[in-house]
Amino acid sequence: MTIDSSSGKTAVFFDMDDTLYDQLDPFRLAVQSYLKSTGGEHDFSDFADLFKRVRAHSDALWDVYTAGAMTLDEMRIQRVSRAFEELGIPIGAEEASLIQYNYETEQGRIRLDEGAPEYFRLLQQRGYVTGLITNGPVKHQTFKIRALGVDAIFPENRIFISDAVGYTKPDPRIFQYVNEVTGTKPEQSYYVGDSWRNDVAGAAAAGWKMIWLNRRQAAPSPEFKPYRIIGSLSELFDFFPGSGD
Predict the structure, then answer these.
(1) What are phi and psi of 177, to 5 degrees?
(2) Which contacts (CB < 8 Å, 24+ apart) does range 207-215 have?
């Protein structure tokens, strides 16, 4: 483990999925591709509601997966099939697997939100310690990191993937690990993420200031109070003026 000499600087780290890009976009395309393959057997248009249900099942099954009681592929199939079933559209494992395959294919075409690359570089120019903290397998997360071009913005030693670190959000130890490796302090660290359970709760437990990106207008829980709530990444563009020193 290499320690940075960034002590005393302000850290601004970001989640990736549904934070640096809108996950609904590749999901919608994946489901549309599946529906087209059924020849109109299922008539469906509320992709936002379906995606919200998939995310809810993903959160509910995440602990089962991390405990080793379910493989990642099984978790992904279950979250899709359960969401469809709630809407009265029962699908089998093979169909759910096809949707997941389509989804991963579309993730290879994802792009950062408009203005984000310039904003990240501006933060770096101002002296902020910037980087990424994301949950998931190294191979799959790296695939998306490269698709977004994040690897050309954040140094490799500032990109933290849970499976490589050994801790998974919301475990506060992943944030503590980032502080240790980057030489930064929790009270001078900000985290920007979309998931209340993984991002808000995890960062708050580690003593970080949490900026909640609430794309879906979800209701917050009373146990944590984010430092700030935003509806889009662009709302951050004027939030860190001056120097990060």
Answers:
(1) -65, -45
(2) 207/172, 207/175, 208/175, 211/236, 211/239, 213/15, 213/18, 213/19, 215/18, 215/22, 215/24
Tokens of 100: 């997941």
Q: Where are the domains of the chain?
A: 11-21+112-238, 23-108
Residue holding tokens 């910037």? 130
Q: What's the CA gap between 33 and 211, in Å, rounded? A: 34
pLDDT tens column, 89-129: 999 999 999 999 999 999 999 999 889 999 999 999 999 99
CATH superfamily of 11-21+112-238: HAD superfamily/HAD-like (3.40.50.1000)
Please give the span between the terminal C-alpha atoms of the chain, in angstroms, as a whole number.
24
pLDDT tens-digit readout, 128-174: 999 999 999 999 999 999 999 999 999 999 999 999 999 999 999 99
Q: What region, left, alpha or beta, does residue 18 occupy, with left being phi > 0 and alpha being psi -120 to 50 degrees?
A: left
Decide if domain 23-108 falls under CATH 3.30.70: no
